[in-house]
Structure formats: structure tokens, C-alpha cells
Design brief:
18% of the residues lie in helices and 20% in strands. It has 222 residues and is of the alpha/beta class.
Length: 222
């Protein structure tokens, strides 16, 4: 197809950003430049939606350096807003994946991965730094909810843990769902969220995934 000057694009339901997913292609003998049409991932679209819908400028951010209307007067500073809180279901942190990179990508537009392997669905990314097309920068803040009651929405990024701290990975609850499809922890959580009519944003709609050794993993869409 490339020899015939056909443009190739990928539509993927990975919870990774498009940048991370593209970099993984070399593991399969493919090059990023083969896909002139780019790669669109559900993780990328999820990040965009969360930015547009829930992110607020951080308290110390203002736009008073910009003259929007050309009259010589600087724009008024943006009023700080209380950050929205996400009930965050995600992946366990390990040498192969760091879910915080995805959260950083949502709020800053940057994935700076110099120590481990990104934010993917059990993938192994190369050490690299990515930015959004506008070069990154503050989109706003998202806080992590410690209960359903204080959450504004559900960020369904992965199916391993309910993470209630964005600094300490040990402060998370193992859902026992990925490998065992155990609903004893996830159902009460989601039922309470449904009673509050919390909106949910899903970064990976897969129901199941084939893992090494013939293991079937239960994914966020399940």
C-alpha cells in the first residue's frame, strides 16, 4: 500500500495516548512514518474529553500577559476554580507502566517518561518524552477523589486498581478484576456512583484482552 502511495492510519482502543501507541509500532516491525494518517486512540480521545470538560486553570495561572483584543490592555487574570475530582480506576504502577504519566498528559499535555514504561494497557514503552501538538502547557488541574461522594466523574483508565492518591501508589485498592473478573469490589463502587449519576469517561472500551501464557484479562469495557 505504501508503494502505491496509499495513506495508512490506525484506529486503536488502547488507553495510551496516540504518541505512546505510535512509538510501540517498532516492536512489530513497523515505523511511525508508515502511517501518514496518524494514529487515533481511545486513550487520546479520553484525554481530550477530560481536558475540555473537567480541567480548570490551576490557581496560580493567569492570562494577563495576553492582549486578546489589541487595545493595549492585558486580559484579566483567570479566576481560580476548585479542581474537579476523578474517581480513578486504573492500572497498577510497575516497571512497565506508570498511570501517572497518563494523568500528567491530560493536565499538562506532556508525557515525560525517563524512568519507566508509560501508561499503557500492560505495554512496555521506550524512554521518551511526548507533547501535544501545541507543545504542551497547562490545560488545568484534576484531583483524585478518595470516595464516590466527593467525585465529580469517573475516569475509567484501567481495570486493576482504584487509586485514591496521585502521589503514593500504595494508597490504592486492588479490584481483583483484571485476572479474576471479581465484581465484589467494583459493583458496590459503581452502584454508588450510579446513584449519584456520576458521568464516566472510559479510556479503553475493550471487554477482554489476550495476555501472555493464554491468560484472558478483563478490561475496562467489561
Amino acid at each position: 500500500m505504501l508503494d502505491q502511495n496509499k495513506k495508512l492510519a490506525i484506529l486503536s482502543n488502547t488507553s495510551s495516548s496516540s504518541h505512546v501507541a505510535l512509538r510501540k509500532l517498532k516492536k512489530y516491525g513497523l515505523r511511525e512514518d508508515m502511517f501518514a494518517g496518524g494514529l487515533v486512540s481511545s486513550g487520546e480521545e479520553c484525554a481530550k474529553f477530560v481536558r475540555d470538560t473537567y480541567c480548570h486553570p490551576p490557581p496560580n495561572y493567569n492570562n494577563n500577559e495576553k492582549d486578546d483584543d489589541g487595545d493595549g490592555d492585558k486580559a484579566k487574570p483567570l479566576k481560580p476554580k476548585t479542581p474537579k475530582k476523578a474517581l480513578w480506576l486504573t492500572w497498577k504502577e510497575s516497571e512497565l507502566q506508570n498511570p501517572l504519566q497518563y494523568l500528567s498528559y491530560i493536565t499538562n499535555g506532556i508525557i515525560d517518561d525517563n524512568n519507566n514504561g508509560g501508561d499503557d494497557d500492560h505495554g512496555n514503552d521506550d524512554d521518551t518524552t511526548f507533547t501535544t501538538s501545541n507543545g504542551g502547557g497547562y490545560y488545568g488541574e484534576i484531583d483524585i477523589a478518595t470516595s464516590v461522594e466527593e467525585a465529580d466523574f469517573i475516569l475509567l483508565h484501567g481495570s486493576e486498581v482504584w487509586r485514591i492518591d496521585d502521589d503514593d501508589d500504595t494508597n490504592s485498592i486492588d479490584l481483583n478484576f483484571l485476572y479474576n473478573e471479581d465484581y465484589s469490589k467494583i459493583d458496590p463502587l459503581l452502584n454508588e456512583a450510579a446513584e449519584r449519576k456520576l458521568p464516566m469517561v472510559c479510556a479503553n472500551p475493550d471487554l477482554v484482552v489476550g495476555l501472555p501464557g493464554g491468560v484472558v484479562g478483563n478490561m475496562p469495557g467489561e
